Every structure is written in structure tokens, then in C-alpha cells.
Amino acid sequence: MKMGWYLLLVILGFDLVLNVSGNLEGDVLYAWKTNLVDPNNVLQSWNASLVNPCTWFHVTCNSDNSVTRVDVGDASLSGQLDPKLGQLSNLQYLEVYGNDLTGMIPSTLGNLTNLVSLDLYLNRLSGPIPDTLGNLERLRYLRINNNFLSGSIPMSLTNIASLQVLDLSSNNLTGDIPINGSFALFTPWSFRNNPGLKPQKFPPPPPLFQIAPTPSAGEPSSP
């Protein structure tokens, strides 16, 4: 009998943890929603009264009711990215492309260490690319093109070995284009339409040491 009560308490406690987690993630997304202009009511289902955000449109969760995907591309949203989005610890896909977002890319997005895809292209984001994005060791797709980003390309991004697709084009970036690490795989297409960026070239290999040919018999040797 005692064992049965113990198991029930464990199950209830586990369920409470999941609900609290869901509430925290829901609070983050709802707070972001309240600071966005949403003329088409795309985020109408983002209701703070629900236990967790897993029933909201444009939000995907895993089996533990934790948010893994936010898809609000081409939604005519305006406003800014909320730094609290960095608290969505299990987020894998952040798709916020094709809107009218302004302001900076929050450095807290570097806390999303499970992120696979970060698509912020076709907005009006400005400021530097956060160096903290180099912490996203599982990132495969980084598309932040067609914004107003400035400053240099963080060298930390070259340490993301999993990076397969990179598009930093059509911004106001300046400085040298890195050529080390994962960046060695990307062509000038990833960096086009940034007048202030300077392509680098690998240094030429040192000249080969040439051994003078041995004179044939009967030929005079060189003086």
C-alpha cells in the first residue's frame, strides 16, 4: 500500500515538473507575443491561460512537452526578438524569417545549445552578429541574410563543425571573411552583397626545393 502511494507521488511530482517547465516556456513565448505587432492574428492561439504552449499553433513540442520548434516565418510580425528566447533550452528550430523585426540579435540565443536551424533572414535586424552564436555546436543552418547587420563576422562561428548552410549575404558586414574551420567549405555566395567584407586567400605554398641535375659523364660541371 505504501509503495503504491509512493509511486503515485512520484508520478504526480514528475507531472508537476513537466507542467512547470511548460509554463516557463509558455511564459517566455507569451511575453514575446505581447511585445510584437501581429496584424494578421497569427499568434492568436498563444494563450497564457493554457498549461503549456504545446497546443499553440506554430509551436512544436517533444514527448516531454518541451518546446522544440517555433515557426513564425512570413507572418508580417514587427517588433524585436526577446532575449528571454534563450531560455527555451530544448529549442531546435527558430524560424522567424520574412517578417519586419528590428533591433539586435540577442546574445542569449547562444544559450540554445540544441539549436539545429536559426533562420532570421528577410527582416530589418541591425547591430553585430553575437559572438555567442559560436556556442551552438549542433547548428546546421544559419541564415541571417537580408538584414542590416554590421560589424565583423565572429571568429567563433568557424568553430561550429556541424554547420552545413551559411548565408550572411545582403547585410552591412565589414572586415575579413574567415577562411578557417567550417568556413573553409563556404563559397563567396554566403557573403555576397556586403561591400565592406574583404575576401581572404590562402597563402601560396612555399616554392619546392629543387635539386640541380647531376651532370652527365663528359659534361663540365657548373662553376
For the largest beta-sheet, the strand count, sense and barrel status come to: 6 strands, mixed
Question: Which CATH architecture is right?
Answer: Alpha-Beta Horseshoe
CATH homologous superfamily label: Ribonuclease Inhibitor
Low-confidence stretches: 2-21
Describe the structure.
There is one protein chain. By secondary structure, this protein is an alpha/beta fold. The protein is built from one helix and twelve strands; from the N terminus they run H-E-E-E-E-E-E-E-E-E-E-E-E. The protein has one domain (2-198): Alpha-Beta Horseshoe (Leucine-rich repeat, LRR (right-handed beta-alpha superhelix)), CATH 3.80.10. The protein is 15% helix and 18% strand. The N and C termini lie far apart (106 Å). Mean pLDDT is 86; it is low at 2-21.
Kindly list the characteristics that best describe this protein:
223 residues; six-stranded mixed beta sheet; single chain; Leucine-rich repeat, LRR (right-handed beta-alpha superhelix); disordered N terminus; 15% helix; alpha/beta; globular
Can you describe this structure in just a few lines?
This protein is α/β, with parallel strands linked by helices. 15% of the residues lie in helices and 18% in strands. The chain is built from one helix and twelve strands.
